[in-house]
Every structure is written in C-alpha cells, then in structure tokens.
Design brief:
Blueprint lengths: L5 E5 L4 H17 L2 E8 L5 H7 L3 H24 L5 E8 L2 H12 L3 E5 L5 H7 L2 H8 L4 E4 L9
Parallel strand pairs: 1-2, 1-4, 2-3, 4-5
Length: 154
C-alpha cells in the first residue's frame, strides 16, 4: 500500500459526508496521515435569506461563514475525541469541485475521500455531481463513498 500523509474529505455536513470522514479516519490512523476537512461556501448567498430578513449580502455571508466554521470545529472535535489524528478545518469560497481540486493541488494531497448522494436521472442532471467532477479532475486517487455503503441512505 502507498504512503498517505494528506487526505482531503470534502463535507456538506450531511450524514453521508460524515460517513466518508469515518473511512478517512481509519486510513489516517493506520498511516499517521492528516485529514483536511474541506467545506466550500458558495460565493453568493441565497437570495431568499437576503430578502426574507432584509439583510445585506455581507451580513448573510458573514453569518454563513461563522456557522460553517462552527460546524467544521464540531465535526473535527467529535472525530478526534477518541483518536490522535490531526484534522485541519478548511473553509473555502467558490465553486465546490473547483475549490476541492485547487486545495488538493495546493497541499499535494495523497487521496480524496468523498461521499456521493447517488442521485441519477433528472435530479443528477439538474444538480450535477461534485463527486463526479472531483473524480474527473483530481490528480490523486479518489475514494467514493456511496449511500449503499451506509445502508441505503437517500
């Protein structure tokens, strides 16, 4: 087996992405690797949030960033409670798959462990697939965790 030192785990804070983190945790413990937990925030806030609460784009973005940072810290704390692995929390702004690939190149990552929701058909075509694009453009191995591996989550 090859030597892993930097494992990227993109998250959308879903249960499925936490499952991917558990896979990465096992690998990181065996290889003494670091996990880079990556969340990508869209550059523009949801229009509904701005119009519903009559707040500026900057206020919405600041609030979303703060919430994302809290969630990253909480997940990292929960995963490292019973472990000595190091989790680096990364918050990026932009297009999800592009930022994941960019960060992967920046740190010369050894692997990306990513969850996929397993959508097909029209839903897949409308929403696209971050995992699919990461697989296509990554310059390192990508381990994809699917809903079936978690007991059929949808």
């Amino acid at each position: 087996m090859f030597d892993l030192k930097n494992i990227i785990v993109p998250t959308d804070f879903s249960e499925l992405s936490i499952t991917a983190l558990e896979y990465a945790k096992e690998m990181a413990e065996k290889m003494e690797a670091k996990i880079h937990l990556v969340y990508v925030l869209e550059k523009t806030p949801p229009f509904l949030a701005m119009s519903s609460f009559n707040v500026s784009e900057e206020e919405v973005m600041k609030s979303m960033e703060e919430q994302a940072q809290k969630q990253l810290k909480e997940i990292a704390r929960n995963v490292t409670e019973d472990s000595s692995i190091i989790i680096i929390e990364i918050l990026r702004k932009g297009v999800d798959y592009e930022e994941i690939i960019k960060y992967s190149k920046e740190i010369n990552s050894d692997m990306i462990v990513i969850a996929t929701h397993g959508r097909t058909g029209i839903l897949h075509n409308l929403l696209g697939s971050v995992a699919e694009k990461v697989i296509r453009y990554a310059q390192c191995p990508v381990l994809v965790i699917s809903p079936e591996e978690k007991g059929g989550l949808t």
